[in-house]
């Protein structure tokens, strides 16, 4: 049976400084430090167990592949269990681990609010009318991309080859409902105006079907094998192919449908019927056609639209719900994902404009087309690209995505509490509660351990190799009852 | 695949059901939708970065993951 899924998202945000030195590394550091200093005691990240050069296909590239963890840069862990840090000249937030798609949406929205609050604090420090502005997008329109990665816990027993081949059709075609939309084309050797508008921010940047890279020659399936938990039992599928979404329903569907397809893969219920002949060219063909009429070649020689492939996956998922149930992805949320998955495909098939309240690219295209017609602009006008960029502007008063009538799934109150409270259903609960209650006794934290200093030598590392232990059910009352970190460690048998 | 091909071309009846069930946006009159878009475009005229060309040109990011 598919294992209970744990998942999360890590987003690299775009960043610009106006009226002061526009150095993205300095600006990102300022942003994070301003937030952390204003809101909590700064607790650093612990790099002891980071192994980003391990490959799921069974080798590691440490010798030829520089580690992309820059430990000298700002790195903090927040009381909601998230990691907030500078990565590759971008501020990045990795959400705390959660167990269903709705909680991903909740903590993802909290991350955006944390960025907004960070901008306020940073601008106070900058003064003189200077400001730092953060964008939740994945491309600057000039060939530079930065990622929004998803992570999914999977059983080590599932062969990686099966995961890679059976998830690829979903990764190529899910962009029809979770693409964030883009004005212009950034595919190498093509003119920006060759594609006036496309579904995805990221599709132009994928050059391989499978591989370890994340910054060059990006692969549709990334092989980084760094589970951040017991490597004998688990793997973490690190997904780099998606866009950052402004629409809550798009994030929900992106993660929710992927969780279900991955559960089906673990139970070997996907099969080879939906395999594509050329996934790399298909991902661009699909992205480049907002009419959704384009067909791509399947491995068996048929041609199919992205909608055909999605209908095929949904049909398998419906059967899977009957035969296996959806407990592994959260039964209630999983069932709701299936309903909305069908609704979004029906809407896209009938008239994409009908799902503009759910799908980012549809909402953005409506703005871009409406503005172009009103002002009689030529395709390629910088004003259209400005609308694209400003759709993702996280300043509340400038953000265009906030004005297009997108449906919401999570209340503002739930988002506000998720800025400081960890999820209750994973080890993020233990991490977050300890950071709240014993900040002075914690030296460092990372995904799978925490290091305490309770005044006696040596420092004590508490391993957290099981993502589903350390939940509110397991340790909630224990943490409540302990007045000191020393007492907690003693009762944990540390 | 035959089943799937049929499924992506629903019958007229099914399509009508779907319109009522799944897509509240289409139950609005075209006129209302147009007013909404006009209002939205008025707003964009107000909040769009004043010098779009400079803004777009200066939006340069370092490549990330």
Compact description:
The complex is a heterodimer of chains A (494) and B (65). With 494 residues, chain A is an alpha+beta fold.
Structure description:
The complex is a heterodimer of chains A (494) and B (65). The longest helix of chain A is centred in the N-terminal third of the chain and has 26 residues, at 101-126. Chain A starts with 6 loop residues before the first strand and ends with a helix. Residues 62-71 of chain A have low confidence and may be disordered. Chain A has 494 residues and is α+β, with helices and mostly antiparallel strands. Chain A has 14 helices and 20 strands. Chain A has helices at 24-39, 101-126, 160-173, 175-178, 248-266, 279-287, 306-324, 331-350, 360-375, 382-391, 412-418, 428-437, 472-481, 485-491, and strands spanning 7-12, 14-18, 44-45, 54-55, 59-60, 75-77, 83-87, 90-94, 131-135, 148-155, 182-183, 197-198, 206-211, 218-222, 234-239, 295-297, 303-305, 442-446, 449-452, 460-463. Chain B is mainly α and 65 residues long. Helices cover 71% and strands 0% of the residues of chain B. Chain B has five helices and no strands. Chain B is elongated and about 45 Å long. The relative contact order of chain B is 0.06. Mean pLDDT of chain B is 68; it is low at 1-26. At the A-B interface, strand 2, helix 7, helix 8, helix 9 and helix 10 of A face helix 1, helix 2, helix 4 and helix 5 of B.
């Amino acid at each position: 049976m598919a294992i209970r899924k744990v998942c999360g998202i890590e987003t690299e945000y775009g960043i610009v400084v106006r009226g002061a030195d526009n150095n993205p590394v300095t600006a990102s550091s300022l942003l994070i430090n301003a937030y952390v200093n204003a809101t909590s005691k700064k607790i650093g990240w612990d790099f002891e167990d980071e192994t980003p050069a391990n490959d799921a296909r069974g080798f590691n590239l440490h010798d030829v592949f520089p580690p992309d963890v820059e430990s000298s840069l700002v790195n903090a862990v927040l009381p909601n269990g998230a990691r907030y840090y500078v990565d590759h000249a971008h501020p990045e937030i990795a959400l705390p681990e959660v167990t269903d798609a709705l909680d991903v949406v909740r903590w993802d929205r909290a991350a955006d609010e944390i960025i907004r609050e960070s901008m306020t604090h940073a601008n106070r420090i900058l003064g003189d009318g200077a400001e730092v502005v953060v964008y939740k997008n994945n491309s600057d329109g000039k060939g530079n991309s930065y990622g929004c990665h998803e992570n999914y816990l999977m059983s080590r027993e599932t062969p990686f080859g099966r995961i890679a081949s059976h998830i690829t059709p979903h990764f190529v075609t899910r962009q029809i409902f979770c693409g964030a939309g883009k004005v212009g084309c950034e595919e190498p050797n093509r003119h920006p105006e060759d594609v006036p508008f496309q579904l995805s921010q990221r599709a132009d940047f994928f050059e391989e079907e499978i591989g370890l890279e994340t910054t060059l020659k990006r692969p549709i399936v990334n092989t980084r094998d760094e589970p951040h938990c017991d490597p004998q039992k688990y793997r973490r599928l690190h997904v780099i192919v998606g866009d950052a979404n402004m629409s809550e329903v798009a994030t929900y569907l992106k993660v929710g449908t992927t969780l279900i397809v991955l559960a089906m893969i673990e139970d070997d219920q996907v099969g080879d019927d939906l395999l594509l002949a050329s996934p790399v060219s298909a991902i661009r063909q699909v992205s480049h056609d907002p009419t959704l009429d384009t067909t791509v070649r399947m491995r068996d020689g048929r041609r199919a639209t992205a909608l055909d492939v999605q209908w095929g996956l949904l049909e398998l998922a419906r059967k899977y719900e009957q035969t296996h149930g959806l407990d592994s992805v959260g039964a209630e949320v999983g069932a709701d994902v299936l309903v909305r998955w069908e609704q979004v495909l029906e809407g896209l098939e009938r008239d994409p404009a009908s799902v503009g309240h759910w799908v980012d690219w549809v909402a953005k295209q409506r703005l871009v087309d409406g503005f172009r017609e009103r002002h009689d602009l030529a395709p390629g006008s910088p004003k259209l690209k400005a609308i694209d960029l400003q759709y993702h502007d996280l300043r509340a008063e400038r953000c265009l995505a906030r004005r297009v009538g997108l449906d919401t799934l999570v209340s503002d109150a739930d988002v506000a509490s998720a800025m400081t409270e960890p999820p209750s259903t994973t080890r993020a609960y233990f991490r977050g509660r300890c950071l709240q209650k014993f900040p002075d006794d914690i030296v460092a934290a990372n995904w799978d351990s925490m290091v305490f200093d309770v005044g006696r030598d040596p420092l004590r590392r508490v391993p957290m190799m099981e993502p589903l232990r350390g939940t509110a059910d397991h340790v909630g009352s224990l943490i409540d009852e302990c007045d000191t970190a020393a007492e907690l460690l003693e009762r944990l048998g540390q | 695949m035959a089943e799937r091909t049929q499924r992506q071309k629903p019958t007229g009846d099914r399509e009508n059901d779907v319109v009522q069930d799944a897509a509240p946006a289409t139950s609005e009159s075209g006129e209302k939708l147009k007013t909404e878009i006009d209002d939205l475009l008025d707003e964009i005229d107000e909040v769009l970065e004043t010098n779009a060309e400079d803004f777009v040109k200066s939006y340069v990011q370092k490549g990330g993951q």
